[in-house]
Amino acid sequence: MKKKKKPKGAQPSKKIIINKKGIKQLGVIIGLLALFFILSVNISAYLIRSVGKAQIVNFETAPTSTVIMVLGASVKVDGQPGDMLKDRLDMGIKLYYAEKAPYILITGDDGLFRANEIYVMFNYLVENGIPQDDIIIDKHGYRTYESCKRANEVYNIENAIIVTQKFHLPRALFICKRLNVTGYGVAADTEEYDRLYYHYLRDWLASSKAFIDTHILRPEPPVTYYEKN
Q1: Which candidate, 163, 157, 103, places its Cα nearest to that of 130?
Q2: Rounded distance between C-alpha atoms, residue 1 and residue 169, angstroms
Q3: Model pLDDT for residues 104-132, shown as the tens digit of each residue
Q4: What is the CATH number of domain 53-215?
Q5: Pairing state of beta strands 182-187 and 104-107?
Q6: Spatial CB neighbours of 102, under 8 Å, sequence gap ≥ 6
Q7: Domain boundaries, the chain
Q8: pTM above 0.85, yes or no
Q9: How would you class 173 by CB atoms within 10 Å of its CB: exposed for 0-12, middle for 13-18, buried for 19 or more?
Q10: Cα–chain center distance at 224
Q11: Beta bridge mates, 110
Q12: CA 97 from chain center: how many Å?
């Protein structure tokens, strides 16, 4: 007697068992990890910015130093400094004429990364009466980390008055101090800039990264360049 063949599709379906307890536990673990990450970011950013804030002074009380360090920022399409960069340069010029330091170090992008900030910065200083011999040019300061690192390792600077905006100063001072450039910071703010809340938020997050950069994993420059003697 022939066995009857089961029609296709007649196999008993396998019941999928969902481990609800396991999913709940996984959700708790993910939530705890997310909470730990958020707390770590905010605590490290707060501590770093607290350290930097202690070194901020105003124009009148800024002590004399070996150099005024003006950090680069965005430039306009017409070749003029952007609002933030112009204010930084103006503060650097003001400090120079007040004899707070005999030299101005301009540090920023030479165009290999985003835009040629150095060309704009140098021309602006010269147009405002700063002697070329008193301008030190670092055209590979693509980020704050590179600016501070190269100031010490390439230009042998150990002390400086650092000029940038208020939201940026605590992080810049912290990084420079960790990379052997001590000193004070002077804020260059003269107006309410566009997207200021965005800049504060971005720098808050970057402050947490600054801890990793200076304590754990030293970053490589964003572009490859060759040092000219």
Answers
A1: 103
A2: 92
A3: 999 999 999 999 999 999 999 999 999 99
A4: 3.40.50
A5: unpaired
A6: 66, 67, 134
A7: 53-215
A8: no
A9: buried
A10: 19
A11: 116
A12: 28
